[in-house]
What does this fold into?
Amino acid sequence: MKRYVIIGGGPAGINAAAAVRAKDGDGEILVLDRDQDPPYYRTELDTYIGGSTSDAEMPLNPDSFYKDRRINIRLRTVVTRLQPAERWVELAGGERVQYEALLLAPGSFPLTVSWPGGRVSGVTTIRTWEDARGLIGRVMETDRPVIVVGGGVLGLILAEGIRQRGRRVELLEREPCLWAPVLDRIASDLIRQGLVRAGIEVHLGEEVAEIHGEDGKVTSVRTSAGRRLDTDLVVVAIGVRPDIGFLQGSGIRTDRGILIDHEFRTNVPEVFAAGDAAQGYDPISGLFRVVTNWNNAVDQGKLAGAFMAGGGELYRGVIVSNSETFCGVRTSVLGLTQPAAQGMVILSGREQAKGMYRKLVLRQDKLIGALLVGNTSGEGMMRKMIIEGKPTSATELKSKFLTGLTIEEIAVS
It folds into this structure.
C-alpha cells in the first residue's frame, strides 16, 4: 500500500488528494496543513469579512467527503524540513513522517513592509480564515477609516469587504493603475469608478511613508503625498510569496517558487509540486512563472494528484487566468494583457455607457491574452483558444467577441 503525503490543505492539496484516491483505491493519503480550520474557500474571505458568507458556507467540503475517501488531514501541522534521500518530512517538534510520493502544495504568505514606526498593533495582513475572523473584530470596534495598502486583487476585495461592514475605507496604491501591471489605464479607471460608487476612496500613485502610533497602537499614517490619514487599522495587501523556506537544504530546485515540469515533478524523484508555490512553464512568455489564483491551484492539484498515483494528462503550461468582481464590476484576465513586443496586435472594444471594455492580444495569428471588464462572456472560449494555441485572425476575434463595440486595432511596433 503506497503512502501519499501532501503538504498543504488548500485547493491544490485537496484536489490532488481526491485525484489520488480516484486512481488508487488502497493507498494511504495524509494531508499536513498549518491552518487551524479544515480546508475552506479562500476565495470567499472577502465576502466573509463583508458578512455575506457565513461560517457554515466557508468549508470546502463536508467532513464526509474526507471520511468517504479515507483522506486523513492533520491540522496545525507545520513542516520544517524535508529529506528526499530518506523520504521523510520533519514537523515542528521533531516528528518525522515517511512518504512514498510527496506533493508540495504549501501555498503562499502575504508580503509585508517595514515602514518607519510600523512596529505597532493595528497593522495587519490577511491570509487565513482565522485572520479574517480577527479582522472582522477589529473592523467592528473602530469608527475611524480603515487604510488598505495595495490595489491588487487582494487589496481590492478586502477593501470591498470592509466597506460592506459600513466602515469608511481609503485604499492606497503606489502605481498609477490598480492591479498593476495586469490592468491598463482604461480597465483600472472602470474598476476605480466601481469602488468610488461603493464609497471607497482610492488614491493612486500614493503609498504609506510612515506609521504614527501611541501606546503601541497605530493612530495615523503619513503618505508619500504628505497627507496624514487618521486610523487605528492598516490592512496590508501588497502581494504574496511562495511558502518554500522549509525546502532549504533539501536539494529541491527553487527559483521564485518550486520548479516543476509538465508532470508536476520536481528535480527529486517522487516529489511533486502544485498551486501557488509551484513555478511552471508559461508557453506565452517562454518563462517559468508562479501564478497565484484559485482556479490555477485547482487545475494543477487535479493533474498533479493523477501523476502521483501513476499517470495523468500532461500539463499544457501555466497562464494567468483570473476572474473577479470588484464592487459589482466583473473582470477577467487571461494570458498576456500588456503587450510590448513588436509584431503583436491589440484589438480593443468599448461601450462607455455600459462600462464595458475588452482588449484582445494576438501574436502570429494566435490569441495570447484577453482583458475583459464589465462583460466577461466568451471567457471560457478565449481561455481554450489561448491554452490550445488555436490559429485565429483579427477578423474572427472581432466578429466573435467585439460585436457591437467601438473597436480599435493597434499593431505594436
Q: What stands out?
A: The mean pLDDT is 96. DSSP finds nine helices and 27 strands in the chain. The radius of gyration is 22 Å. The first helix runs from residue 11 to 23.
